[in-house]
Amino acid sequence: MRKKIIAGNWKMNVKPSETAALVTGIAEATKAFTNVEIVCCTPAIDVAAAVAAATGTQVSVGAENVHWEASGAYTGEISTGMLLDAGAKYVIIGHSERRQYFGETDETVNKRATAALKAGLVAIVCVGETLAERDAGQVEAVIVRQMKEGLKGLSAADAANLVIAYEPVWAIGTGRTATPDQAQEVHALIRRTLGELVGVEAAESVRIQYGGSMKPGNAAELLAQKDIDGGLIGGAALKADSFAAIIEAAAKA
Ligand code: 13P
After folding, report:
1. Which residue, of 23, 68, 184, 191, has the greatest Cβ tally within 10 A?
2. Cα(175) to centroid(ligand 1), Å
């Protein structure tokens, strides 16, 4: 049985001074749901405040990006060691917004994921097609390419700390969700591809999250799918009540 994992991606929202209240609100509202792994991935500048508020609760903290080098002259970047030192345990890698706006490629995803996993962070690696790619019938080609290039060189042991997030770009922040069948089809493809990369047994243990307008109203039907093991939540993770309602749906799935 794969433990469900619900992670919030705060994106560029929530100030350091607002962080403790949100984390505490989430922890309070989700105390009963001990069978779900709960993560808040925050802007780097919020990580320390989030860790302080999450300590002693069932909530864990992650970041939204990480550099692959351990230290050095990389102005503006943050290393795996810095995240771990601050108490982060997770990191999102290769989010479509980073691919779209900040030059992220499958190659840099691979460098970040490799560094994060070697350092002992849980890497939440994002894949997903654009609407143009879906309309052109390229879903499988795009997902398989992102997986094979982004996860190149990873072993079955690395897979123990790997989470994949399937985020169809056309569903992010649009209010338009993949149907449970559409999502399940791609999640199954992701698991098959993982099997080729790290072996079937390791692939069976990797959690695959759905992301893209997941909300309290649609979480249960998505999480009921065989290969949907959680969610990566944007907008609905910014309020304790809506995030907690998704976690409740995961607890009951
Ligand atoms: P929304 O939930 O706001 O659509 O964002 C999804 C997402 O990008 C999570 O990483």
Report:
1. 23
2. 10
